[in-house]
TrEMBL record:
Sorted UniProt keywords: Transferase
Annotated region (Disordered), positions in chain: 361-386
MF-aspect GO terms: CoA-transferase activity
Protein known as: Formyl-CoA transferase
One Pfam family this sequence matches: CoA_transf_3
Alphabetized InterPro entries for the sequence: CoA-transferase_III_domain (IPR050483), CoA-Trfase_fam_III (IPR003673), CoA-Trfase_III_dom3_sf (IPR044855), CoA-Trfase_III_dom_1_sf (IPR023606)
PANTHER family: SUCCINATE--HYDROXYMETHYLGLUTARATE COA-TRANSFERASE (PTHR48207)
Superkingdom of source: Bacteria
Length: 419
């Protein structure tokens, strides 16, 4: 099988069978594709990945949700209830370096696609199971959805205004964290598999990712033995570290240490706040949070956001404007952060997508002093149409043209013809 999804990246030549759907698993496999791996996405021929129906909005008939997490992949639309279709997917797994799946417990075993079955033919396979509540959770078949996990993990309890209700994060953050954790676990296992010739079964769960993602908030709860509170746009342990209103827009200020606080006071022309012994160190500022925030707010309301941000930047105080999502993406690109990339999509035309948070050169040259992000990038496929690559993938797996045509004829395989 060839590797058209990301030739030239550090994972060039690595093959991934993506049996996952929705967000966490597909996000993990998209990151592997961004690193150069060839990813074959296995989908139901009738409906495809669930997120193909999660619109509006749409672009060229494709849901924006699906487009967000499926670039760099080829789509094999095959019915796993069809014996010949299932046999083809088993062959795909046998020929892959990595298998990622997020079926409900018991389903992969019934299909003969579980780790034991795949390993029997492919001892070096790195097999990743993405779950909602972990492999040992009781009851074992509990479905995992981001909203439920945000509630169950405590993440929702610490999000929102102090006097308000618990609020979910505005993006499915537990899925995203799980995708990142899955990709990290897979890469670590792949290194060992390449060294030993033996694969292994790694797991990543939404609940584990959410709990570990609470980092200092969780640790503070463990240290104090008390439940963590909600601080809105402020910080439990650092003051001032929050959003503030100005004369015309909201900004955030992150004075994370005593030196930055002194610089902030100078930029605001408030020497009285700099000299006040109540605010001399961070514990004092936390203890007197209400008084200090009120004083800073009063001063910041006197001028507009642009003027304050210029002053704060000149003083070396971390600060920023509270932006909308589209504004933020455009601002990042304008500032040279290279946040988006455009790919030619067969139905949506030139499609803007958000790049991964990392930058890895396709072929680093240590003698050239390259930095991450320098150099040529892997060739990236746009998010696939449902079944766009079915015939090509099945041909690579050894099926004849006649057998493929028969599968398509009886509806076991979908082949989308791109015109």
């Amino acid at each position: 099988m060839s590797a058209p999804g990301g030739a030239g990246g550090p994972l060039a030549g690595v093959r991934v069978a993506d049996l996952s759907r929705v967000l966490a698993g597909p996000y993990a496999t998209m990151l592997l594709a961004d690193l150069g791996a060839e990813v074959v996405k296995v989908e139901d021929p009738g409906r495809g990945d669930d997120t193909r129906a999660w619109g509006p909005p749409w672009a060229g008939g494709e849901a924006a949700y699906f487009l967000a997490v499926n670039r760099g992949k080829r789509s094999l639309a095959v019915d796993l209830k069809d014996p010949e279709g299932l046999a083809a997917v088993r062959e795909l797994c046998a020929r892959s370096d990595i298998v990622v799946q997020n079926f409900r417990p018991g389903v992969v075993a019934r299909l003969g696609l579980d780790y034991a079955a795949v390993r029997e033919r492919n001892p070096a396979v790195v097999y990743c199971s993405v779950t909602g509540f972990g492999p040992d959770h009781r009851p074992p078949d509990r479905p995992g959805f981001d909203l439920v996990v945000q509630a169950e993990s405590g993440l929702m309890a610490v999000t929102g205004e102090p006097a308000g209700a618990a609020v979910k994060v505005g993006v499915a953050i537990t899925d995203v964290l799980t995708g990142l954790n899955a990709a990290v676990a897979v890469l670590g296992a792949l290194v060992r598999a390449r060294a030993t010739g033996r694969g292994e079964h790694v797991t990543a769960s939404l609940i584990g990712s959410a709990l570990s993602g609470l980092v200092n908030v969780a640790q503070s709860a463990l240290v104090t033995g008390t439940e963590a509170g909600r601080y809105g746009n402020a910080h439990a342990s650092i003051v001032p570290y929050q959003a503030f209103p100005t004369a015309d827009a909201d900004i955030v200020i992150a004075a994370g240490n005593d030196a930055l606080y002194q610089r902030l006071c100078a930029a605001l022309e408030r020497p009285d706040l700099a000299a006040d012994p109540r605010y001399a160190d961070n514990p004092g500022r936390v203890a007197h949070r209400a008084e200090l925030v009120a004083a800073l707010t009063g001063t910041l309301r006197e001028r507009g956001a642009a003027e304050w941000l210029d002053r704060l930047a000149a003083a070396g105080v971390p600060a920023g404007r509270v932006r909308g999502v589209l504004e933020a993406l455009r601002a990042a690109d304008a500032a040279g952060d290279d946040a988006t990339l455009a790919l030619p999509h067969p139905t949506a035309g030139l499609l803007d997508l958000v790049r991964a948070g990392f930058r890895v050169p396709a072929e680093p040259d240590p003698d050239a002093g390259e930095r991450p992000g320098d150099g040529p990038r892997p060739t990236t496929l746009p998010p696939p149409l449902l079944g766009q690559h079915s015939a090509a993938v099945l041909t690579e797996l050894g099926l004849s043209e006649g057998r493929i045509a028969a599968l398509v004829e009886r509806g076991a395989v979908r082949q989308h013809e791109v015109r």
